[in-house]
Amino acid sequence: MTIRLLTPQDQPQLDAFLRGHTAETMILRSNLAQSGIVDGSEPYQGRYAAAFDGERIVGTAALYWQGMLAVYAPQHAGAVARMVADGRAVAGIIGPWQQALDAEDAIAQNGAHHKLRSREMLMALPLERLVLPAPLLQGQTLHCRRATAADHELLYQWRLDFCCESLGATPSQALAQSAAGEVTRWVAEGSQFILLDNGRPVAGCCFNARLPDTVQIGNVWTPPESRSRGYGRAVVAGALALARRDGVTQAVLFTPEDNPAAQTAYLAIGFTRIGDYAILLLAD
Predict the structure, then answer these.
(1) How far is CA 204 from CA 10, 32, 195, 224, 278, in A?
(2) Is 240 left (phi over 0), alpha (psi -120 to 50) or beta?
(3) Beta strand extents in 99-163 (DSSP E only)
(4) Are 1 and 51 in contact (CB under 8 A)?
(5) Under DSSP, is residue 83 helix (H, G, I), strand (E, B) or coil?
(6) Helices (DSSP H) in 71-133: which residue ranges?
(7) Which residues, other chains included, contact 162 with Cβ-Cβ below 8 Å and sequence gap of 6+?
(8) Which of 151, 206, 229, 273 has the highest CB neighbour number within 10 Å of its CB?
Protein backbone atom coordinates (compact mmCIF):
# COMPACT_ATOMS: atom_id res chain seq x y z
CA MET A 1 0.00 0.00 0.00
CA THR A 2 1.28 3.45 -1.02
CA ILE A 3 -0.11 6.83 0.01
CA ARG A 4 0.91 9.95 -1.86
CA LEU A 5 -0.25 13.35 -3.04
CA LEU A 6 -1.87 13.37 -6.46
CA THR A 7 -0.86 15.34 -9.53
CA PRO A 8 -2.94 16.37 -12.57
CA GLN A 9 -1.73 13.22 -14.31
CA ASP A 10 -3.64 11.16 -11.72
CA GLN A 11 -6.98 12.81 -12.45
CA PRO A 12 -8.40 10.18 -14.87
CA GLN A 13 -7.63 7.38 -12.42
CA LEU A 14 -9.11 9.31 -9.49
CA ASP A 15 -12.27 10.12 -11.44
CA ALA A 16 -12.66 6.47 -12.40
CA PHE A 17 -12.40 5.46 -8.73
CA LEU A 18 -14.96 8.04 -7.61
CA ARG A 19 -17.37 7.36 -10.46
CA GLY A 20 -18.42 4.06 -8.90
CA HIS A 21 -19.51 5.83 -5.69
CA THR A 22 -21.25 8.98 -6.92
CA ALA A 23 -23.75 9.42 -4.08
CA GLU A 24 -20.99 9.40 -1.45
CA THR A 25 -18.53 11.51 -3.47
CA MET A 26 -20.52 14.27 -5.16
CA ILE A 27 -18.42 17.08 -3.69
CA LEU A 28 -15.17 15.32 -4.60
CA ARG A 29 -16.33 14.56 -8.13
CA SER A 30 -17.94 17.94 -8.75
CA ASN A 31 -14.94 19.92 -7.54
CA LEU A 32 -12.60 17.68 -9.53
CA ALA A 33 -14.66 18.30 -12.67
CA GLN A 34 -14.70 22.06 -12.01
CA SER A 35 -11.01 22.68 -11.35
CA GLY A 36 -9.03 19.46 -11.73
CA ILE A 37 -6.24 18.65 -9.28
CA VAL A 38 -5.02 22.14 -8.46
CA ASP A 39 -3.75 23.00 -4.98
CA GLY A 40 -4.89 26.63 -4.89
CA SER A 41 -7.09 29.22 -3.24
CA GLU A 42 -9.79 29.64 -5.89
CA PRO A 43 -13.22 28.03 -5.58
CA TYR A 44 -13.27 24.28 -6.19
CA GLN A 45 -9.48 23.94 -6.06
CA GLY A 46 -7.95 21.40 -3.70
CA ARG A 47 -4.99 19.33 -2.62
CA TYR A 48 -5.62 15.60 -3.19
CA ALA A 49 -4.07 12.45 -1.75
CA ALA A 50 -4.86 8.80 -2.37
CA ALA A 51 -4.06 5.34 -1.09
CA PHE A 52 -2.94 2.84 -3.74
CA ASP A 53 -3.09 -0.96 -3.64
CA GLY A 54 -0.53 -1.57 -6.35
CA GLU A 55 -1.71 0.68 -9.18
CA ARG A 56 -5.31 0.83 -7.96
CA ILE A 57 -6.73 3.72 -5.89
CA VAL A 58 -8.58 2.41 -2.84
CA GLY A 59 -9.17 5.65 -0.92
CA THR A 60 -8.83 9.41 -1.30
CA ALA A 61 -9.16 12.73 0.51
CA ALA A 62 -9.02 16.35 -0.59
CA LEU A 63 -8.44 19.57 1.34
CA TYR A 64 -10.25 22.39 -0.43
CA TRP A 65 -9.65 26.11 -0.76
CA GLN A 66 -11.87 27.01 2.20
CA GLY A 67 -10.36 24.41 4.55
CA MET A 68 -12.94 21.64 4.17
CA LEU A 69 -11.54 18.13 4.05
CA ALA A 70 -13.62 15.68 1.99
CA VAL A 71 -12.89 11.98 2.35
CA TYR A 72 -13.97 8.83 0.55
CA ALA A 73 -11.72 6.02 1.65
CA PRO A 74 -13.22 2.64 2.50
CA GLN A 75 -9.58 1.76 3.17
CA HIS A 76 -6.97 3.96 4.90
CA ALA A 77 -9.23 6.98 5.58
CA GLY A 78 -7.00 8.20 8.40
CA ALA A 79 -3.81 7.87 6.41
CA VAL A 80 -5.03 9.80 3.35
CA ALA A 81 -6.50 12.52 5.58
CA ARG A 82 -3.20 12.90 7.43
CA MET A 83 -1.29 13.07 4.15
CA VAL A 84 -3.51 15.73 2.60
CA ALA A 85 -3.78 17.86 5.74
CA ASP A 86 -0.08 17.73 6.68
CA GLY A 87 -0.34 20.45 9.31
CA ARG A 88 -2.60 22.74 7.28
CA ALA A 89 -5.66 24.39 8.78
CA VAL A 90 -8.77 22.21 8.55
CA ALA A 91 -12.14 23.92 9.01
CA GLY A 92 -14.22 20.76 8.83
CA ILE A 93 -14.53 17.21 7.54
CA ILE A 94 -17.23 15.67 5.36
CA GLY A 95 -17.68 12.13 4.12
CA PRO A 96 -19.19 8.79 5.10
CA TRP A 97 -19.67 8.77 8.87
CA GLN A 98 -17.02 6.31 10.05
CA GLN A 99 -14.50 7.47 7.45
CA ALA A 100 -14.92 11.07 8.61
CA LEU A 101 -14.38 10.02 12.23
CA ASP A 102 -11.23 8.10 11.25
CA ALA A 103 -9.98 11.16 9.37
CA GLU A 104 -10.71 13.41 12.33
CA ASP A 105 -8.78 11.11 14.66
CA ALA A 106 -5.83 10.89 12.27
CA ILE A 107 -5.34 14.66 12.02
CA ALA A 108 -5.67 15.03 15.81
CA GLN A 109 -8.89 17.02 15.59
CA ASN A 110 -11.00 14.60 17.63
CA GLY A 111 -10.50 16.71 20.76
CA ALA A 112 -11.32 20.00 19.04
CA HIS A 113 -14.42 22.00 19.80
CA HIS A 114 -17.09 21.60 17.13
CA LYS A 115 -19.46 24.20 15.75
CA LEU A 116 -21.35 21.25 14.34
CA ARG A 117 -20.97 17.49 14.70
CA SER A 118 -23.83 16.00 12.76
CA ARG A 119 -24.54 12.45 11.73
CA GLU A 120 -26.59 12.73 8.55
CA MET A 121 -28.85 10.48 6.51
CA LEU A 122 -27.51 10.14 2.96
CA MET A 123 -30.48 10.00 0.58
CA ALA A 124 -30.84 9.46 -3.17
CA LEU A 125 -33.56 9.83 -5.77
CA PRO A 126 -33.73 8.70 -9.42
CA LEU A 127 -35.52 11.69 -10.92
CA GLU A 128 -37.92 9.49 -12.86
CA ARG A 129 -39.46 8.83 -9.41
CA LEU A 130 -39.69 12.49 -8.36
CA VAL A 131 -43.07 13.30 -6.77
CA LEU A 132 -44.13 16.92 -7.22
CA PRO A 133 -46.21 18.40 -4.37
CA ALA A 134 -49.70 19.32 -5.54
CA PRO A 135 -49.26 23.11 -5.09
CA LEU A 136 -46.42 23.03 -7.64
CA LEU A 137 -48.55 21.52 -10.37
CA GLN A 138 -49.88 23.69 -13.15
CA GLY A 139 -52.50 26.18 -12.08
CA GLN A 140 -51.54 26.16 -8.41
CA THR A 141 -50.03 28.95 -6.29
CA LEU A 142 -46.38 27.89 -6.01
CA HIS A 143 -43.70 28.49 -8.61
CA CYS A 144 -40.02 27.51 -8.49
CA ARG A 145 -37.45 29.22 -10.69
CA ARG A 146 -33.72 29.73 -10.98
CA ALA A 147 -32.52 32.75 -9.04
CA THR A 148 -31.18 35.84 -10.80
CA ALA A 149 -28.87 38.65 -9.78
CA ALA A 150 -31.95 40.63 -8.70
CA ASP A 151 -32.51 38.06 -5.91
CA HIS A 152 -28.99 38.40 -4.54
CA GLU A 153 -29.65 40.54 -1.47
CA LEU A 154 -32.48 38.30 -0.22
CA LEU A 155 -30.54 35.11 -0.90
CA TYR A 156 -27.47 36.54 0.79
CA GLN A 157 -29.47 37.17 3.97
CA TRP A 158 -31.01 33.71 3.77
CA ARG A 159 -27.53 32.18 3.39
CA LEU A 160 -26.30 34.04 6.47
CA ASP A 161 -29.31 32.83 8.44
CA PHE A 162 -28.80 29.26 7.22
CA CYS A 163 -25.14 29.24 8.23
CA CYS A 164 -25.90 30.56 11.71
CA GLU A 165 -28.89 28.31 12.42
CA SER A 166 -27.93 25.09 10.61
CA LEU A 167 -24.11 25.16 10.64
CA GLY A 168 -23.43 26.85 13.98
CA ALA A 169 -21.63 29.82 12.42
CA THR A 170 -21.09 33.10 14.25
CA PRO A 171 -21.83 36.38 12.42
CA SER A 172 -18.59 37.97 11.23
CA GLN A 173 -17.08 39.81 8.31
CA ALA A 174 -15.54 36.57 7.06
CA LEU A 175 -18.93 34.84 7.14
CA ALA A 176 -20.52 37.75 5.27
CA GLN A 177 -17.85 37.62 2.57
CA SER A 178 -18.17 33.86 2.25
CA ALA A 179 -21.98 33.99 2.01
CA ALA A 180 -21.90 36.75 -0.61
CA GLY A 181 -19.39 34.81 -2.70
CA GLU A 182 -21.35 31.58 -2.48
CA VAL A 183 -24.63 33.20 -3.52
CA THR A 184 -22.96 35.04 -6.40
CA ARG A 185 -21.34 31.83 -7.61
CA TRP A 186 -24.48 29.68 -7.32
CA VAL A 187 -26.60 32.25 -9.15
CA ALA A 188 -24.03 32.59 -11.95
CA GLU A 189 -23.88 28.80 -12.33
CA GLY A 190 -27.66 28.44 -12.45
CA SER A 191 -27.50 26.35 -9.28
CA GLN A 192 -29.58 28.56 -6.95
CA PHE A 193 -33.36 28.26 -6.82
CA ILE A 194 -36.14 30.26 -5.22
CA LEU A 195 -39.75 29.32 -4.46
CA LEU A 196 -42.53 31.88 -4.87
CA ASP A 197 -46.00 31.73 -3.30
CA ASN A 198 -48.25 34.03 -5.31
CA GLY A 199 -45.10 35.89 -6.31
CA ARG A 200 -43.68 36.18 -2.77
CA PRO A 201 -40.27 34.52 -2.10
CA VAL A 202 -40.76 31.89 0.61
CA ALA A 203 -37.90 29.34 0.34
CA GLY A 204 -34.66 28.55 -1.46
CA CYS A 205 -32.16 25.79 -2.15
CA CYS A 206 -29.13 25.19 -4.32
CA PHE A 207 -27.13 22.50 -6.02
CA ASN A 208 -23.90 22.56 -4.00
CA ALA A 209 -22.37 19.91 -6.25
CA ARG A 210 -23.33 19.01 -9.78
CA LEU A 211 -22.39 16.72 -12.63
CA PRO A 212 -24.08 16.36 -16.02
CA ASP A 213 -26.28 13.51 -14.74
CA THR A 214 -26.41 14.08 -10.96
CA VAL A 215 -26.98 16.99 -8.58
CA GLN A 216 -26.61 17.34 -4.84
CA ILE A 217 -29.15 19.45 -2.94
CA GLY A 218 -27.94 21.85 -0.27
CA ASN A 219 -28.66 25.15 1.47
CA VAL A 220 -32.38 24.37 1.84
CA TRP A 221 -33.83 27.34 3.71
CA THR A 222 -37.28 28.51 4.69
CA PRO A 223 -37.46 31.65 6.86
CA PRO A 224 -39.03 30.95 10.27
CA GLU A 225 -42.19 32.92 9.49
CA SER A 226 -42.90 30.70 6.46
CA ARG A 227 -42.27 27.27 7.96
CA SER A 228 -44.65 24.30 8.38
CA ARG A 229 -46.33 24.99 5.03
CA GLY A 230 -44.47 22.49 2.83
CA TYR A 231 -42.25 25.11 1.22
CA GLY A 232 -39.01 23.20 1.86
CA ARG A 233 -40.08 20.08 0.01
CA ALA A 234 -41.66 22.21 -2.72
CA VAL A 235 -38.49 24.19 -3.48
CA VAL A 236 -36.39 21.01 -3.60
CA ALA A 237 -38.92 19.25 -5.84
CA GLY A 238 -39.20 22.30 -8.07
CA ALA A 239 -35.42 22.62 -8.45
CA LEU A 240 -35.16 18.93 -9.32
CA ALA A 241 -37.97 19.18 -11.87
CA LEU A 242 -36.01 21.94 -13.62
CA ALA A 243 -32.84 19.83 -13.48
CA ARG A 244 -34.69 16.85 -14.94
CA ARG A 245 -35.65 18.97 -17.96
CA ASP A 246 -31.92 19.60 -18.45
CA GLY A 247 -31.15 15.87 -18.56
CA VAL A 248 -30.19 15.26 -14.92
CA THR A 249 -31.26 11.76 -13.87
CA GLN A 250 -30.20 11.45 -10.20
CA ALA A 251 -30.24 13.58 -7.05
CA VAL A 252 -28.59 13.12 -3.67
CA LEU A 253 -28.69 14.99 -0.37
CA PHE A 254 -27.92 14.52 3.29
CA THR A 255 -30.03 15.63 6.23
CA PRO A 256 -29.52 15.36 10.00
CA GLU A 257 -30.69 12.19 11.69
CA ASP A 258 -32.31 14.33 14.37
CA ASN A 259 -34.45 16.31 11.92
CA PRO A 260 -37.54 14.15 11.32
CA ALA A 261 -39.45 17.00 9.64
CA ALA A 262 -36.83 17.26 6.88
CA GLN A 263 -36.68 13.50 6.52
CA THR A 264 -40.46 13.32 6.08
CA ALA A 265 -40.33 16.09 3.48
CA TYR A 266 -37.66 14.35 1.41
CA LEU A 267 -39.30 10.93 1.67
CA ALA A 268 -42.54 12.50 0.43
CA ILE A 269 -40.96 13.58 -2.86
CA GLY A 270 -39.30 10.21 -3.47
CA PHE A 271 -35.91 10.16 -1.70
CA THR A 272 -34.76 7.00 0.07
CA ARG A 273 -32.00 6.53 2.63
CA ILE A 274 -28.86 4.86 1.28
CA GLY A 275 -26.26 5.45 3.99
CA ASP A 276 -24.75 7.66 6.69
CA TYR A 277 -22.78 10.86 6.24
CA ALA A 278 -20.86 13.22 8.49
CA ILE A 279 -20.58 16.98 8.74
CA LEU A 280 -17.89 17.88 11.28
CA LEU A 281 -17.32 21.64 11.46
CA LEU A 282 -14.59 22.85 13.77
CA ALA A 283 -14.71 26.03 15.79
CA ASP A 284 -12.74 28.99 14.45
Answers:
(1) 37, 26, 6, 13, 23
(2) alpha
(3) 114-126, 142-146
(4) yes
(5) helix
(6) 77-85, 97-106
(7) 219, 221
(8) 206
Q: What residues does 51 pair with on adjacent strands?
A: 3, 59
The answer to pTM > 0.85 is: yes
Written as tens digits, the pLDDT of the chain (284 aa) is: 899 999 999 999 999 999 999 999 999 999 999 999 999 999 999 999 999 999 999 999 999 999 999 999 999 999 999 999 998 999 999 999 999 999 999 997 555 678 899 999 999 999 999 999 998 887 678 999 999 999 999 999 999 999 999 998 899 999 999 999 999 999 999 999 999 999 999 999 999 999 999 999 999 999 999 999 999 999 999 999 999 999 999 999 999 999 999 999 999 999 999 999 999 998 76
Nearest partner of 238 among 259, 256, 217, 223, judged by Cα: 217
d(CA 196, CA 144): 6
